[in-house]
Design brief:
By secondary structure, the chain is of the alpha/beta class. It folds into two domains: 43 residues, no CATH class; 128 residues, Glutamate synthase, alpha subunit, C-terminal domain (Pectate Lyase C-like), CATH 2.160.20.60. The protein is built from four helices and nine strands; from the N terminus they run αββαββββββααβ. Strands 4-5-6-7-9-8 form a six-stranded mixed sheet, with helices on one face. Strands 2-1-3 form a three-stranded antiparallel sheet, with helices on one face. The longest helix is centred in the C-terminal third of the chain and has 18 residues. The protein starts with 9 loop residues before the first helix and ends in a 12-residue tail after the last strand.
């Protein structure tokens, strides 16, 4: 990993050092105050909070709330993510819902291992438009939410804490709604997506690892 640090106004630094000629995985610039960096952003999204005198940055909202009586908290809100093709490892890890905010991830292709690992809420839909595979350890540690997968899957792919159940009429209506938006975004015909049955993956319990805890 390479790090470049410059002192000055971000726009002046960029012009002087001709940063537009460089390529980087991530650029970060700030004019004043504090910034927080996290090398595991897909596992632990950054959360920030403050009280009268202190700014807190952590990778878990619960951790911040344990140590302070906070005035404000900022954290990523759930949204909808539509992916035309396949995804890699651990897509949707730690997905969770909060009150009326529930994440939705629709994947047009397949997925590598550990899809939906430790999923706590929300919905994932894997369409496998080109009959792509879904990897091993599917939904390992899942304790909330639901995953819909187009076509049949081998039960041996399921990770610890997950189970498959048939899709009912209510599920079918939900899937049709998600597929309609996916098709509108990517110019795909809904009929060719809905021409196969779906399998539904749900958690076996809300606390799959409760035997490992002392309280």
């Amino acid at each position: 990993m390479g790090v470049f640090k410059g002192v000055g106004y971000p726009e002046d630094i960029g012009r002087f050092y001709k940063l537009d000629r460089y390529k980087a995985y991530q650029w970060i610039a700030h004019g004043q105050g504090m910034i927080g960096l996290n090398d595991r952003i897909k596992l632990r999204p950054m959360t920030a909070a403050r009280d009268d005198t202190t700014l807190y940055i952590a990778t878990e909202e619960s951790a911040i709330r344990e140590i302070a009586d906070l005035d404000e908290v900022w954290y990523p809100r759930a949204g909808s993510l539509f992916i035309r093709d396949s995804v890699g490892y651990r897509a949707g890890i730690h997905a969770k819902a909060y009150n009326e905010h529930s994440p939705l991830i629709v994947i047009g292709g397949g997925a590598r291992d550990f899809l939906g690992e430790y999923m706590a809420g929300g919905t994932m839909v894997v369409l496998r438009m080109g009959d792509e595979e879904v990897g091993d350890y599917l939904a390992t540690g899942m304790h909330g939410g639901v995953i819909y997968i187009r076509g049949s899957i081998d039960e041996s792919l399921l990770g610890e804490g997950a189970r498959s159940v048939p899709v009912d009429a209510a599920d079918r209506r939900r899937i049709e709604e998600y597929v309609a938006e996916f098709c509108q975004r990517f110019g795909v015909g809904a009929d060719e997506v809905m021409d196969k049955e779906f399998v539904k993956i749900i958690p076996q319990s809300s606390r799959p690892y409760q035997d490992l805890y002392t309280h």
